[in-house]
Amino acid sequence: MQLIDREIVLAGGSGGLGTAAVELLAAEKARLVVSYLSNEERARNLAGVATIVQADLLSAQDRKRLLDAAPRLYGLVVFAGNPARVKGEQGMEEAMRLSHDVNYLGPILLAREAAERMKSAWQPGAIVLISTMQAAALFAGSTAYAAPKAALAHAAQILAKECRGAVNIRVNVICPGVNQAGMAEASIASGKYDRNIKDGVIPRFGHAADVARAARFFLEPDNYITGQVLTVDGGLTL
């Protein structure tokens, strides 16, 4: 129960992965703020355990409003993202611009702004950014989605280096694999990754709880880890 009463923002936390993290952290009585972009109905399902804030991470005003909802900010986990799916080269430019904004720009700006608040308040804390296994390994056809997510992981490590010191703000990244919640859910339903189960590459598809536990690990107040990228994929990228 080391997270009891600690204020943690879960940006884009109303989706499948985020909801699992909300449930895990709420059980420890953390004070949670969950943001959503457009699906208010889904977000309101979490209203009993979290403060709900509508926020577009590309808006400076929305980012400020979101962080203002946690005046004693201890932790930030950024789940927000977009699969940026595109077939062939048609529509590639539009998908790449969208992915850059949603998968990289918004999340890293929010992370940097959160870190500045922690520094100003002399508040030790933890920031966790969600990337993807496609940023940790090469998958054909993943340029639009994976490249900004790889940039996010790199920028997070830079931020971790900038946040070293007496205040102790730790910044880490999780790269989920083929997960039965979140953006990979549609790919699993299509049978795209069935061969990995059949061939014994992975024992099962990932669960939202796998990612939630990894986030909880990085949020641990006495955690001694920063600037790291943890791939939670059952060994698929091996």
Provide structural commentary.
The protein has about 240 residues and is of the alpha/beta class. The protein has one domain (about 5-230): NAD(P)-binding Rossmann-like Domain (Rossmann fold), CATH 3.40.50. The chain contains nine helices and seven strands. It has a seven-stranded parallel sheet, with helices on both faces. β2, α2 (about 40-45) and β3 (about 50-55) form a beta-alpha-beta unit. α1 crosses α9. It is globular.
Spatial ordering of strands, largest sheet = 3-2-1-4-5-6-7
- The CATH homologous superfamily is called NAD(P)-binding Rossmann-like Domain
Order of helices and strands: EHEHEHEHEHHEHHHE
Q: How much helicity do the residues have?
A: 40-55%
CATH class: Alpha Beta
Rounded Rg: 17 Å
Which architecture would the CATH scheme give at its second level? 3-Layer(aba) Sandwich
CA(first)-CA(last) distance: 35 Å
Structurally, the number of domains stands at 1
Structural class: alpha/beta
Looking at the structure, what is the overall shape?
A: globular
Provide the residue-averaged pLDDT.
Answer: 95
Largest sheet descriptor: 7 strands, parallel
Q: What's the CATH topology label?
A: Rossmann fold
Number of helices: 9
Question: Strand percentage, roughly?
Answer: 15-25%
Q: Low-confidence segments, ≥5 residues, pLDDT <50?
A: none
